[in-house]
Design goal:
Helices cover 44% and strands 15% of the residues. It is of the alpha+beta class and 799 residues long. It folds into four domains: 3-210, STAT transcription factor, all-alpha domain (Glutathione S-transferase Yfyf (Class Pi), Chain A, domain 2); 218-322 and 329-389, Immunoglobulin-like; 397-600, Orthogonal Bundle (Recoverin, domain 1), CATH 1.10.238.10; 636-796, no CATH class. A hairpin with a 7-residue loop joins β18 and β19. The model is unreliable at 615-662, 666-686 and 695-799 (pLDDT under 50).
Length: 799
């Protein structure tokens, strides 16, 4: 059973007992009242008989001694008086027993109230507060408001029972004050005990009301100057006790940790708690106040009694350095804790005044600059995860790794919004980073200090802490990699050496995505390739940060990286995936986006590409080949542009000066040109390659690569005839797109092209200067491989 539900179930049984005892006290008071009335009536009878007897005795003394009738009357009166005394004695004994039973019932009721209040406040409500606290660092808190409503019902119930018991105790005190004062001193004794019970019940009622005033919706964990924040304070006892909330106000102000501690310990009173910032709204009148006030209102439908704040941190007072302990160690700004103090104005319930009702929020951090936010989040995580719910400012200096691991698991999911949690291997890797060595059973329990967590460098050669490294990874995942992480395409938390071992152990060529441990918020791509001596080696690409991926996302980077063109699989969290899965989201987004209208946007669009340089020791420049990833420097189109142009007969003047494509001699490209008049239908794969051979007098091998030295373009881009199929007719041109999983068709000024490593797109865009020229080129019909930027493979269709 859930812990909170267990508390509520136990509490229901206690409240049932309290209800029964409360009814017993009420019944006992009624019985005591009746018996006392009987006793008082009997005393009246005795008093009358005594008066009558004295009167008759006086009359008998003045009369003749022989009056027998009068003697008999005296005897009768004396007998009646004796009988009345005996009856009064018996009634008095019943009255004493009834008083004793009523006091015992009230005492048992007080004990049940204390037990129920402790279970409600110290257990059930504290468990709810603990979950609320943990929810701020990522722990899922389901049915938060529903559970709080159930707790509020218990508060209302126990408050009603306490009020009933208070009424009974008050009536009993009044009954005792009206009782005859007899020599046995029973009335003063019972009255003293009754006053003690009244005092205890009043204290319990105040404790219940004070405890029921809580922060039901916490503010942001980090408050920023000039930024808005929302919060909500709620009185859980509701309005069932006849409390008049007319003109009852709730104020909020920001206090420091020392003031918060003093308030919790009762060292200072509310008026003596100084503020550290001005809170209000953006109006000038509010900006002069240290606090903001709103009305405490009863929600019409739910009957919840609450005050809702939509506030703004207007101005932060100058903060002096604070001493943390007796060693006079100053606390940095980001480590100081603050809290919002919610105070309710005085109100009455019956004759009881409630004038000291307040509640503190969970610890918050106060920042005036964005650079303070990262460390502030670290301190909040540590505070919320490891401090007791009842005393949230008692923060430990060290915790066990297992505790921190759970907190990091919650935080990662909360910060990123990921559905895939951190695995055991992920946490083991994090343990190695924070502890400085692999986690082993001999280290149990491994302790982590707050300095190790967020202050000390993660390694001696780094200038950032473990938390800074972890926090920036969460930012990267949230902003750029969430889908890939959730689908398991990112291995993530794995060392470079382990990644190398994994990739070399696989039979098929794969690359792997891992978080860099030497760059903040960096994602590195590790891939395995064959060297010229036949050995396989693993190379990591320089890490990509969120800023890098903002300019060019991960999909295009992988798709157009020469070293990854022919690697078809990515090794994820548990297994290998097809590389094409990475590009699915980008393709879907592109499909949804609207095509550029040339009439409203008469420009040629461009995009960035990634160029990777992978240095491989031991290979000379003479051994370099544009098509081999085992070169000393893996080629990129931008690097080889001049070489490619020289091989196909294009001079440097062509690159430097714009030309008119209407007058351009397409045969000067020297590569893959097909005369417009040759075909009127799409060609099969073999026919296309035969045509290319005939047109250029070159030999193609089985993979569609030219064997002559002049075939740099075809060789560099590895056109594979097994991956070329006919496509639809676009503007009179039949397209044969290269359907590699790393490449996809894109529409460029009404021409469907396969973009190959578009780092030199600007060169092409200079040559095609307007739409008319582009259309005239399309109208001729052509099939060619552009020297660096575009791959258009097709033949014309005769109209």
């Amino acid at each position: 059973m859930d812990v909170l539900h267990g508390y509520l179930s136990h509490l229901a049984k206690l409240l049932e007992e309290l209800c029964t005892e409360s009814k017993e006290s009420d019944s006992q008071w009624k019985l005591t009242s009746e018996i006392q009335a009987q006793f008082i009536g009997r005393l009246g009878t005795i008093q009358s008989l005594r008066g009558l007897l004295a009167q008759k005795q006086a009359t008998l003394k003045t009369a003749d001694s022989g009056n027998d009738s009068k003697q008999n009357m005296l005897q009768e009166i004396s007998k009646a008086l004796d009988s009345a005394n005996k009856q009064a004695g018996k009634i008095y004994e019943k009255l004493l027993d009834s008083r004793k039973a009523l006091l015992s019932s009230l005492k048992r009721s007080v004990e049940l109230v204390i037990a129920a209040r402790c279970l409600l406040v110290d257990d059930a409500l504290q468990e709810w507060k603990r979950r609320q606290k943990m929810a701020q660092i990522g722990l899922l808190f389901e049915r938060e408001e529903e559970l709080l409503d159930q707790i509020a019902e218990r508060f209302e119930y126990i408050a009603e029972e306490v009020w009933t018991l208070l009424t009974v105790a008050q009536w009993f005190s009044e009954l005792l004050e009206q009782s005859p004062k007899l020599p046995d001193q029973n009335v003063p004794q019972c009255l003293a005990m009754s006053q003690q019970i009244l005092s205890a019940l009043t204290d319990e009622l105040r404790a219940i009301v004070h405890s029921s005033f809580i922060v039901s919706k916490q503010p942001n964990v980090v408050l920023k100057q000039h930024n808005k924040f929302n919060a909500e304070a709620r009185l859980l006892i509701g309005d069932k006790l006849g409390i008049k909330f007319f003109n009852v106000k709730v104020s909020v102000k920001l206090v420091g940790e020392e003031q918060a501690r003093s308030l919790e310990e009762g060292v200072v009173s509310l008026p003596d708690a100084p503020t550290v910032a001005k809170i209000g709204i953006s109006s000038l009148s509010e900006s002069e106040k240290d606090s903001q006030e709103v009305n405490l209102e009863v929600e019409r439908e739910s009957k919840r009694v609450k005050a809702v704040f939509k506030s703004k941190l207007l101005k932060v007072d100058p903060r002096k350095s604070v001493c943390k302990n007796a060693d006079d160690q100053q606390v940095p700004v980001c480590e100081r804790n603050y809290a919002l103090l919610f105070t309710c104005s005085p109100f009455k319930m019956g004759g009881v005044l409630f004038d000291n009702v307040w509640a503190l929020s969970l610890p918050v951090k106060l920042t005036v600059h964005g650079s303070q936010e990262r460390l502030s989040h670290a301190m909040i995580l540590w505070n919320h995860a490891f401090s007791p719910a009842k005393t949230p400012f008692n923060i430990p200096d060290a915790v066990e790794w297992n505790q921190l691991a759970e907190a990091l698991r919650y935080k990662f999911k909360y910060q990123t919004g990921a559905t895939r949690p951190l695995s055991k291997s992920d946490l083991d890797y994090l343990a190695e980073k924070v502890l400085g060595q692999p986690l082993s059973s001999a280290m149990q329990p491994a302790m982590v200090t707050i300095d190790m967590f967020c202050k000390n460098p993660m390694r001696q050669d780094l200038d950032f802490s473990f938390w800074s490294w972890f926090f920036e990874i969460t930012v990267l995942v949230k902003q750029k990699l969430l889908r890939l992480w959730d689908e398991g395409l990112i291995r993530g938390f794995i060392s470079r050496q382990e990644a190398r071992e994994v990739l070399l152990s696989l039979q098929e060529s794969c690359f792997l995505l891992r978080f860099s441990d030497s760059h903040l918020g960096g994602l590195s791509v590790s891939f395995a390739t064959f060297l010229e001596d036949g050995r396989r080696e693993v190379f990591p690409l320089a890490p990509f940060t969120a800023k890098d991926l903002e300019h060019l996302s991960l999909g295009p980077r992988i798709a157009r990286c020469p070293q990854l063109l022919h690697i078809e699989h990515v090794y994820g969290s548990e297994r290998c995936f097809e590389k094409s899965v990475i590009f699915r989201q980008e393709a879907e987004m592109r499909h949804k986006s609207q095509a550029v209208n040339p009439k409203t946007y008469p420009y040629i669009t461009s995009e960035l590409i990634m160029v990777a340089h992978t240095a491989v020791p031991g290979i000379s420049e003479a051994e370099a080949s544009p098509s081999s990833p085992s070169n000393g420097i893996c080629p990129s189109p931008g690097d080889d542009l001049s070489t490619i142009c020289e091989c196909v007969g294009i001079t440097s003047d062509f690159l430097d000066n714009p030309i008119n494509l209407n007058d351009f001699d397409w045969n000067s490209l020297g590569v893959g040109f097909v005369a417009p008049e040759m075909f009127d239908t799409p060609m099969a794969d073999s026919d296309l390659f035969s045509c290319l051979e005939d047109q250029n007098n070159v030999n193609l091998d089985d993979t569609g690569q030219r064997q002559s030295d002049s075939a740099v373009c075809l060789q560099s881009y590895r056109i594979n005839k097994s991956k070329m199929i006919p496509c639809d007719n676009f503007n009179g041109v039949w397209m044969y797109p290269q359907l590699s999983s790393t490449l996809c068709l894109r529409k460029w000024n009404n021409v469907w092209v396969c973009p190959l490593l578009l780092d030199t797109f600007s060169v092409i865009s200079e040559q095609i200067s307007d739409m008319d020229t582009t259309q005239s080129v399309i109208g001729r019909g052509f099939a060619f491989i552009a020297f660096s930027s575009l791959c258009i493979v097709g033949v014309p269709r005769m109209n």
